[in-house]
Structure formats: C-alpha cells, structure tokens
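re: ur question from earlier - yeah i can do the single chain one, its not a big deal. heres the input i used so u can compare w yours
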Amino acid sequence: MPGPVRIRADVSEADPHTCRFVCSEVVHPDGPYAFTSPEEAAGSPLPEHLFDLGVVTHVLIAETVVTVSIRPDVEWGDLRKRIGAIIRAQADAGVPAVLASVPNLDGWVDGATRDTAALRRILDHLFEHEVNPRVASHGGRIEIVEVGDTTLKISMHGGCQGCSSSNVTIEAGVEVMVRRVAPEITEIIDVTDHARGASPYRSGPVRLVPVDQTTE
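and the output i got, formated as tokens:
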C-alpha cells in the first residue's frame, strides 16, 4: 500500500476555529461532503472519528482537503496533530472516508428483523459500491466469505493480504460502515491467511474484531 499521506494544516485567518488539512492524496473522490453532527457522520469513517474527539462542529471533505471546525471555546493546541493522525490513519486504511450511499433494502431504516439472505444483499452492496472501489486503488480487494445472524467473515486479497495495515482497514473503515448498514453484525472475522501475502506481517488466518455498537 502507498506510504503515509502528507498533510499541511492551515488555520483560517477569517475564522480561527476552522482549519484546512490539505493532503498529498485524495481523501475521498467527488464531493464535497459536509457533516454538521455526529448523527450525520454515522457510518462515514473519517468524519465519525473526527466527531469522536468531542470538540468538532463541522467537517467538509472535498477530494484532497478536509476542513474541520471546532467549538469557539476550544483552542487548537495539539488538536491539529491529532486530527492529522486521524486523517493519516484513514488513508492507511485504504477504504472510503465517506459512506456516500446506503442500500435501502428490506426495511433496514426501521431496524426490521432481517434474515441472512437480506443481510448478504446489503453487505454485497456495501462492499461492491463503497468499499472495494477504494480498496482497489491500493491494489487490494475484500470479499465476503460468509454472513451469519451476527457475524461477518471476510477475506482480503491482493495488496491487503499480508499488509500490516489490514487491521486498520477493518477497524478504522470497514467496521464503521458495516455498523451503519447492518447493526445486527456484532463480529467481523478475518479468515485471510496473511502469512501467504506478499509482505506478511503475522501468521495465522483468523482474527476477530468486535463491532462496537455503542453510540456514546
């Protein structure tokens, strides 16, 4: 996967509580995408992680630029470094920063009970239309192996197999999006044999990632 993204932080002269983070690569194509609350950011990995800081009031993502506003009673201090680290982690994850579309299937909005076939259709849509187009730009692909009532098994291929950032890909990106479209899934199981990848960083095919469903 590519090296770490380079980021320049420019605090606005007109609004000292707004800062533009200009990145050396595209954070998310198209856009712009604006988020003004944690609720709006739910399911979109980058803005969701930024709102988790507890001081962010607005996030605007437009290709290589992430503009972040913070509460007027907060100073930047080390916030710029922390935000830069979040943006870098998102780039390392190699998955979309923004969940641009959510499949409207089988009454997911109402939280209706869905069987595994319905969950599979929802997750297929997520991976094919959101996750894998971005992962492909990093030379990888993530495939769904099996969908259970509460579990999702995946396998990683290409540049993702054996990559040291594969855990970041799941925890910083895939987990967030899966939680948004399929809250029934409480565990993601990576069955990839990473030891057989081009640059293996560990051995053993199974890793369990609990999906945090708390909203606090």
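Confidence is low (pLDDT under 50) at residues 106-111, 199-216. not sure if urs matches, ping me
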